[in-house]
Amino acid sequence: MGADYVAIPWEGSAHPHAAGVAPLAAPTGLALRGFGIYVGLDEATAGAAGVDIGELVDDVQRALTGIPGAETFASVVLAPEGAQVAALEAVRTALGEPSVHRGSALAARRSEGVVVDLARHRVSVDGEPVHLTYREQALLTHLVRHQGVIHERRALLAALAGGDEPDEISERTIDVYLQRLRRRLAPYGDVIRTIRGRGYRLDPHPDVAVIGAAPGAPAAP
Fold first, then answer.
1. Using CA atoms, how far apart are residues 175 and 188, in angstroms rounded to an integer?
2. Which residue from 53, 80, 86, 215 has the fewest beta carbons nearer than 10 Å?
3. Domain extent listing, the chain
């Protein structure tokens, strides 16, 4: 029997809502087993700061292996000199980070489930394109970029800032837009969960593939 492994994007203190986010908790049925940190840093930039990348990797590993029972593995990514690609993107692609490498391949052949293409602002359900309104797209984009986080209505309302007719939407009408979004994602609408008394959350789910822009990057639906 195979096991399903999922990764929850987490930006820590860089997360725009970090101050109001509860401690990281695994979705129901899953348990936290470790974490990965992708660091994009080219030799020239590191050298200018007086940092040796090899020594830095050793220092990080030593810090983590000091935790009893911790197991670590490190990979250093090489790329052609002068390559016109962001260092972090090169690292994430080379190491097969799910939302960059595996996600694109999955979406190319996937005929079931929900595929959210953040870069192209496209959504499909079971291989068929789904047309979302600006606000529905904005809500879905916000939820998939911050999977595992519980969002109060106020936070979701802020995610819609910049849309048309801003005075016509209130915290209560967020419920209406989410209901519409769930209907458009049917039969997978329940991937958007209601957390009673707290708000809404989208957990990593095998029926949902997210491709395109990196988690946490700004979007313009």
1. 17
2. 80
3. 43-95, 114-211
